[in-house]
Amino acid sequence: METYDERLTGMLESFLFIAGDDGLTLNQIASLLQVELDAAASIAEGLRVNYEERPDSGITLRLYGGHYRLVTKAEFADDIVRMLENPTRNSITQASMEVLAIIAYKQPVTRIEIDDLRGVKSDGPIQTLVARGFIMEVGRMEGAGRPILYGTTDLFLDRFGLESIDMLPPLSEGDDEEQFGDTDLFMTKFQEAFEITEEGGNND
After folding, report:
1. 202 within a domain of the structure (yes/no)
2. How many other C-beta atoms lie within 10 A of the C-beta of residue 87?
């Protein structure tokens, strides 16, 4: 039967997964779990130890810059690189293309803003695009939590044949900002501009 502590640990794991790259501070964890700071720290440490002691787990918990984040274990680094370099993964998925398009035209932009525009979580596509070198962290937004801001890289410009981000083609006449609220229209315009299909692109 599930214990109270086990439920809190499971809740924390869920919260950290949803938080993605932004992670959670100890204060945020305590507030979300509705426990004192000492208890929150103990639960986080217990989760970390659990990950470290499990040989069948490829992820662990790390504290970076005051934020707890779920990360892959260092011992699997070579395997992850091999996976990312697998030629069968050359195509860009529709989800990743949506995120890349939003970042290209709206940068700098936070994950939350991307999620709001797409209507779904974007952690996976963002991690994929970072790993492939198309986007990177370009700073943090001022305010609560200081969320990460994302922008495109020189590799993005190179792969899409652009000298600078200013050379991005307009999505429509007048560059109507409202189209960003319509994912289907937004993606249609972006894909038409670069002659990209859902399975991949002419430069990727």
Report:
1. no
2. 5
Answer for the pair 95, 102: CB distance below 8 angstroms, yes or no: no
Domain's final residue, options 29, 46, 75? 75
Half-sphere exposure of 50 (CA within 13 A, CB side): 12
pTM (2 d.p.) = 0.52
The number of distinct structural domains making up the chain is 2
65 and 147 in a common domain: no
Categorise residue 66: left if φ over 0, alpha if ψ from -120 to 50, beta otherwise: left
Q: What is the pLDDT along the chain (204 residues), one digit of tens a residue?
A: 567 788 999 999 999 988 887 889 999 999 999 999 999 999 999 999 999 999 999 999 999 888 999 988 888 888 877 776 664 545 677 888 889 989 998 999 999 999 998 888 898 899 889 888 889 999 988 877 788 999 999 888 877 777 788 887 776 544 444 445 444 555 565 655 554 433 344 333
What distance in Å separates the CA atoms of residue 55 and residue 57, rounded to the nearest whole number? 6
* Same domain? 62 vs 29: yes
